[in-house]
Amino acid sequence: MPNITVTSVLLGLNVAVFGLMLAGGIHPMTPAIDSLIQWGANYGPKTTNGEWWRMFTAMFLHIGLLHLLFNMVALWNIGGFMERVLGSTGFLVLYLLSGLLGSATSVAWNPFVVSAGASGAIFGLYGGLLGFLVRHRDAASQGFLAGLRTNTLAFLGYNLLFGFIQEGIDMAAHLGGLAGGFVGGLVLTRPQRQ
Fold it and tell me: Smallest Cα–Cα separation from 118: which of 10, 19, 32, 37?
C-alpha cells in the first residue's frame, strides 16, 4: 500500500490538539465558546484584527468529541486516496489551502460566528477529488470513476443538505473549502492508474 503518512499525521495532530484541550479543562462534548476562542478558533473580530493565524489553528480544533470523530472518519476515508493521487506534498498543499480558504470564507460570510474544525479542509479534499474526476475522466476505468463519483456526491449531498437544515454548522467554511479544493484538484492531480 502506498505511503499515506500525511493523512496519518493530520489525524494524529487533530486528536492530539483535542487531547490537549481536554487536559486544559474543556468540556468533552460541548466546549464553551470562550474556551474555543482561547484555543485559537476562527472568530472574525479577532481574526481580522491581526490574529490571522486563527484561520490556520481553527483547522485543528474541534467543538466536542463527536465533531472530532465525524471529521476524523471523513479524513481517513478520503485522505488516503487523495494522498496517493496527489503525493504527500500535493495532498498537504490541497488540505491546508482548502482549510485556509474555508476559514477565510467563514470570516467573510459569518464574521461573528466562532468557527473550528477540519471540515473545510475535508470538503476541500472532496472538491479535489471532483477536480480529479473532471480532469482525468479518461485516465481510469469508468467503473472505478463511477464509484468514486457516486461516493463523493453522496458525501457532499448529505453534508450540504444536513448543513443547511441543522443550526450551528459553518456552511461558509464547507463551501469555501469545497471550491478551493475543486480548483486545487484541477491543478494538482495526476492520473491514477487502475
Answer: 10
8 A C-beta contact, residue 14 and residue 72: yes
Pick from 192, 91, 108: nearest CA to 145: 192
Q: How far apart are CA 156 and CA 126, in angstroms?
A: 8
pLDDT at residue number 191: 54
What DSSP string runs through 82-121? HHHHHHHHHHHHHHHHHHHHHHHHHHHH-TTS-B--SHHH
- Mutual angle of helices 65-109 and 171-188, in 10-degree steps: 90
Strand ranges (E), 107-164: none
Check: CB of residue 190 under 8 Å from CB of residue 111.
Answer: no
Q: Active-site positions?
A: 119, 174
Q: Give the pLDDT confidence of 51-108 residue by residue, as tens digits.
A: 999 999 999 999 999 999 989 998 998 999 899 989 999 999 999 999 999 999 999 9
pLDDT tens, residue by residue, 123-166: 999 999 889 888 877 765 666 666 666 777 777 777 777 667 76
Please state which CATH number belongs to domain 5-188: 1.20.1540.10
